[in-house]
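Check this.
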Amino acid sequence: MPTVNGCNIPDELLYDVENHIWFTEQGDGTVKLGMTSVATAMAGQLVAFTPKKVGRSVKAGKSCATVESGKWVGPAKSAAAGDVIAVNDDLISNPDLANSDPYDKGWFIILKPDDWDAVKANLTPGSQVTAAYEAKMASEGFAGCP
């Protein structure tokens, strides 16, 4: 797994670097998404995760969930519009899963996107994300993951 300044960035995922969100296609027309290890390290230990409810719509560039840590409260923004078809109930009851395992047990929601091909074209493949994340981390003054 590639790392950027100590942060794991799996190369099989797609990234919205600006919003620190990863996406992975589920093979059935849906996508799973969550926060990157960069985002969870910057935010600190997550203490609350409140996703949009199953059946609700998410607009592109808008919140699919609210996350809260000791340092930060804010939206997790989805680059894709669509309908929420599943939420990670384990993360609701144990939000620090996003810190300990952001790419597996710490996923946020599964979305049925409206126009995935258009969104996918604007995401950065993991195999090409290193330079983009190095620049993003530098611009935010974030030295890296512990």
The CA atoms of residues 53 and 84 lie 7 Å apart. Helices lie at 37-43, 89-93, 97-100, 116-120, 130-139. The radius of gyration is 14 Å.
